[in-house]
Amino acid sequence: MSIKLIAAILLGKIIFYITQILKIGGGSAAPGYYALKIYPNLVKDLASKIPQTIIITGTNGKTTTARMIAQVAIAHGLKIIRNSTGSNLERGIASTLIANCNLFPRTCNLDLAIWELDEAAFNNVALKLNPNMIVFLNAFRDQLDRYGEVDSVISKWCQTLTKIDHKTEILINGDDHNLLELKKCFKGKIRIFGVKDCKISGEKIIHQKENEKLNFEATNIQPRGLDKIEFKINSESFSLPVPGIYNVYNFLASYAVADYLQIPESTMKTALQNFSPAFGRVEKFEFGCIFLIKNPAGATQVLQTVAPEIKSQDRLLLALNDNFADGTDVSWIWDVNFEILHLKPPVIPHLMRDPEHNKLDSRFRGNDIIVSGTRAQDLALRLKYAGFDSNSIIVENILEKAFKEAQTGLKGSLFILPTYTALLELQSILTKQGLKNNYWEENK
Fold it and tell me: What confidence category does residue 350 fall into, taking pLDDT thresholds of 50, 70 and 90?
């Protein structure tokens, strides 16, 4: 074994244990960051020891889909490794490998690796992982300052796919017109999933059944509030204990991966009966729930999910940051359908709820809506143009104070919608208050 590799792994393990002891991130990125400076080929070298590898990429749903696949694989008896904290750059992969692989001898006693990769990181890391299967969930506008427009993301994915081994199997969302372009770039096996008579809101999301044969299709979608969503695949009924049509897509991708791994359908059904999402993805508390929002398509899907459930005594806390991990360009909020929360009745897809249940009284009066984060004022302005009375919007840039304000005198439920770094800050606040564990301790 290379002396540099030994040194890199040793340094990474030391940093991992220090971050664990000091509770400063749980070793999700720092170990890999510094280890890669010593030995740049660490990921390729360690990942080659794992028999099977699944890569998941896309704008939305990576963490939830990876969590579903992991839960099913473990139920099937497989020993897995995955970047469970959502650290999806190369440093996150490296950190996870360092934490799970032995130094002497250099082995990883595992059956399956499940890696979620950032849209841009995919192009730099995918070849190093030598995947057996790649899952493309969707392609939406997200962090334009980092990724560029969707067509640029797709073009780079195509360039990477031309270099991927043809034995690799590709899985794509057939309801996303953008992803269908990938079929032109890869000569190996491609399978497609989609949802019948339903679509998620976003750029060029259309049902392609007339043109594309779907290998996996969900039908008869039946939302059941915030508790679950029911549907069928091949006439078999499924019930997923999280809301949102977007989670049906995540489930379909997981179902297809389970099929590839030859895991029985019955195992998947049983394994996901008590599925709980990762931190911030429909995370429920006694005071309410948290939904991560980070781009126009994802935020609109969340609003479509929660709007039918909001009652007159409920409150809404929105937190918008413009840090690097969020994207410094926050103009995306103008493409989010915030009007869905204000209009009476709200404009909600017919499948979400019977129209009679949408006839809610005027909401968010007085102190019922709070905005926070580094760009709280931008959010307040967006809500004003969405039809909210500016006098009823409380602006509090400091999230901890905003959270306290939102809870004061609360008679109903609190719906919190933060961007990524605001979510991490909120998790820290909740941990300090003893309401939850550190996210790296619970998202295994």
Answer: very low
**Is the pLDDT confidence value at 366 over 90?**
no
**12 and 74 Cβ atoms separated by less than 8 Å:** no
Structure tokens at 254: 């997981």
Rounded to 10 degrees, the C-alpha dihedral 366/401/428/227 comes to -10
Long-range contacts of 254-257 (CB under 8 A, 24+ apart): 254/65, 254/68, 254/69, 254/72, 255/193, 255/216, 256/135, 256/171, 256/191, 256/193, 256/215, 256/216, 257/54, 257/69, 257/133, 257/135, 257/171
Element holding 240 (H helix, E strand) = strand 236-240
Q: Which residues contact 263 (CB under 8 A, 6 or more apart)?
A: 72, 73, 76
| H or E element at residue 151 | helix 150-161
Per the structure block, which two tokens stand in for 357? 């249940």
As a residue count, the chain comes to: 444
> For residue 277, what is the DSSP state?
P
Q: Is the distance from CB of 43 to CB of 33 less than 8 angstroms? A: no
Put residue 143 in one of left, alpha, beta given phi > 0 → left and psi -120 to 50 → alpha: left
Give 245-274 pLDDT, tens digit per residue: 999 999 999 999 999 999 999 999 999 988
Separation of CA 234 from chain center: 26
Domain boundaries in the chain?
A: 50-86+106-271, 281-442
Do the beta carbons of residue 304 and residue 202 sit within 8 Å? no
Instruction: Please tell me the pTM assigned to this model.
Output: 0.88
Query: Could you tell me if 9 and 103 are in contact, meaning their C-beta atoms sit under 8 angstroms apart?
Result: yes
* Predicted pLDDT of residue 347: 39
Tell me which architecture the domain covering 50-86+106-271 has in CATH. 3-Layer(aba) Sandwich (3.40)
Return d(Cα 189, Cα 200) in angstroms, integer: 26
Using CA atoms, how far apart are residues 262 and 74, in angstroms rounded to an integer? 13
Under 8 Å between Cβ of 241 and 269 = no
Angle, vertex CA 93, rays to CA 432 and CA 243, nearest 5: 60
Contact 112, 70 (CB under 8 A): no
281-442 under CATH 3.30.70, yes or no = no
Give residue for tokens 């039918």: 308
**DSSP bridge partners of 170:** 134, 190
What is the distance between the terminal CA atoms of the chain, rounded to a whole angstrom?
30
CB 415 within 8 A of CB 316: yes
Q: How far is CA 90 from the centre of its chain?
A: 17
SS3 438: coil
